Amino acid sequence: MNSFEQSRKLAPRAKAAPWHVPVALLVAALLAGAPVYSETPTPVKAQVKVPTVTVAPVKMAEIIGQVFVSGTLVARDEILVYPQVSGFTIDSLTKRVGETVAAGDVLATLATRNLTVLVTQAQAEVTRVEASIRQAQSQINTAQAGLTQAEAQLARNAQLKNRGVGTQANLDDATAAAATARAAFSSATDGLALAQAQRDQVQAQLDLAMLNLDHAQITAPAAGIVSARNGQLGEIASSGGEPIYRIIADGAVDVELEIIESALGAVSVGDPVTLDIASVGTVTGSVLRISPTVDRVNRLAIVTVEVSSESQLRPGLFANGTIETARRTSLTVPTEAILNDSGDTYVLRVKEGVIERSPVTAGLIWEDYREIIDGLSENDMVIARAGAFFIDGDTVNTITEDQKTSSPAVTAGKDAGQ
């Protein structure tokens, strides 16, 4: 036996604890209500925040349809004044640009010396031909007398021949004399007709010469305002080229406006127009006529507008404004409330806090509102803006613009969905 084994025998043994002691302690703990293990806590259900949106009521309001236009002022009727006789020098020009003229006012005069000579020559020719007519008439009278005498002599010789006391030779001579007298009378008659024709011709020449002399004074054919003076003193007047004067008839000025073809069908004759005209200001008028054609290049049509008469209106001025195509009272919603999806137009109506997608038929836009032709009723509430963030069936809290304005607390804490 070694030393280690001797020491184990000599050392006292530790006394083992009975088995039932730990069990007793465990039972005591259970009876005392102490938990043996820790239970997992039940999670708290998260609260869902309902967004607040701005809504607007569907309401009746006046809607005005407008087409935006621009264009230029033009003379309603422009009179081009040309000389009625060519080849004569312009002696005077009496009117200047901007002056008002009346019908018949002298605008210019041509040199009349040559025209006066032509009138004198024509008058002399008329006098000569009238003398020829008198001579031809005298010849007719003489021929008539000779014919009467020759026919009487022929009748006597025929009677004598029938009674047997006259000769055939005398009858033949009388017959020949009567034929000669008839020929002379016919020739005299033709001479008179020729002289009368010559008189008509020279009378026409005289009338033309006198008319040209009258046309040496160039007058205004109608009242208006001189818009251009192209004639020059000393210039040879011609009926070709530029007119001597341009006149705005009665001073009436219209506006020719360009309008896109897609809006052409909305415009009618008589529609009211409001225009801003450079250097003049705001003027009103109405549609006078609509062009029956559209330009093939720029796809624009011309609408002519009659504006209130004002002396400041001048052809060439620029104008822009609107044509009022409609005015009526209709159901309206804010323009931003109208949404589009694949060609469908709709709004998001809110009823008892729940969103409903409502198809609508939309009409005119006026300022910040859009006309509703069909799909909604007055006082329905629709999401005024940010509707694209919501879908059918969403739950929301609502607030109106008036409520937002009157409640600073709400305004300060408004939801991002607004």
UniProtKB/TrEMBL annotation:
Which key words tag this protein in UniProt? Coiled coil
Pfam families in UniProt = Beta-barrel_RND_2, YknX_C
* SUPFAM superfamilies the UniProt entry points to: HlyD-like secretion proteins
Q: Where is the YknX-like C-terminal permuted SH3-like domain?
A: 331-397
InterPro entries hit by this protein? Beta-barrel_RND_2 (IPR058792), RND_pump_MFP (IPR006143), YknX-like_C (IPR058637)
User: Does the record bear Phosphoprotein in its keywords?
Assistant: no
Instruction: Please name the PANTHER family in this protein's record.
Output: HLYD FAMILY OF SECRETION PROTEINS, MULTIDRUG RESISTANCE PROTEIN MDTA
NCBIfam families per UniProt: RND_mfp
Q: What is this protein called?
A: RND family efflux transporter, MFP subunit
Source organism (scientific name): Sulfitobacter brevis
Q: Species lineage, top-down?
A: Bacteria, Pseudomonadati, Pseudomonadota, Alphaproteobacteria, Rhodobacterales
